[in-house]
Specification:
This protein has 83 residues and is an alpha+beta fold. The chain has one domain: Orthogonal Bundle (Arc Repressor Mutant, subunit A). It has helices at residues 3-18, 27-34, 39-55, and strands at 24-25, 60-63, 66-67, 78-80. A four-stranded antiparallel sheet has the order 1-4-2-3. It is globular and about 30 Å long.
Length: 83
């Protein structure tokens, strides 16, 4: 894991910490916070960071409100604290 991966994980955690309990974020919010100009290039890494955090039990990745595996999910996903 490189520095960008670690920063993305920390950013996801920090963004969730700023939200009300039960709220979610889009991985793009973390990518934009890390690199406002090149965030689109960070999207695969941001989704991977969310997947690693989910595997560790720190977050849940959802799609249409249902928990999904970010590695196989197609389309937009959200990240939230586990319920």
């Amino acid at each position: 894991m490189d520095d960008v991966d670690r920063v993305l994980e920390q950013t996801i955690d920090a963004l969730l910490g700023q939200r009300r309990p039960g709220a979610s974020i889009c991985p793009s919010e973390a990518a934009r916070a890390v690199d406002p100009d090149g965030w689109r290039d960070l999207m695969p890494a941001a989704r991977s960071a969310a997947g690693r955090l989910a595997a560790a039990g720190a977050v849940e990745v959802t799609q249409s409100g249902a928990v999904v595996d970010v590695a196989t999910a197609r389309g937009p996903v959200r990240v939230r604290r586990p319920r």
